[in-house]
Design brief:
about 140 residues; alpha/beta; Rossmann fold; 4-stranded parallel sheet; about 15% strand
């Protein structure tokens, strides 16, 4: 099992908690979410994240997901990477989070999971143009 720590700005973490509940009924026991407020000190954030990590079953490693590379959640997560069994993927989006939660409890290879999660994030971003929408409209009108 891989432990997941999701670190985001403000209430994004709460929104992702609700999304996890929507898809999975509840937040699985191998997932913790930390919301970063503007007035949180870096030391307080690292300590809070360490407490959350200690609550996880990380026998297969730890994957941390953060929203924006280079921002406070990312910087906090970077301070928690102490070995090759702890990874971070930045650019959190809903497809990434769903894939991570879906597979983390079944996986024991954090590197493979990180790659799968990264690909889910990329695949979840689509450009829909007028032709795509027009085609859909024609099908629903028939």
């Amino acid at each position: 099992m891989i432990g997941l720590l999701i670190i985001t700005h403000e209430t994004l973490g709460e929104a992702y908690t609700q999304l996890a509940g929507h898809f999975f009924g509840e937040v699985p026991p191998n997932v913790r979410i930390l919301g970063v407020r503007g007035d949180d000190s870096p030391q307080t954030l690292v300590e809070g994240a360490q407490v959350l990590l200690a609550q996880l079953d990380c026998s297969g490693g730890t994957l941390m997901l953060t929203d924006i590379f280079g921002a406070t959640p990312c910087n906090t997560a970077q301070k928690l990477i102490h070995d090759d069994n702890t990874l971070m993927v930045t650019g959190l989006n809903a497809p990434m989070m769903v894939k991570a939660i879906q597979y983390a409890s079944k996986s024991n290879n954090v590197h493979e999971l990180a790659t799968t999660v990264q690909q889910a994030a990329i695949n979840g971003i689509m450009i829909i143009d007028y032709n795509d929408v027009s085609h859909c409209d024609a099908e629903t009108r028939s």
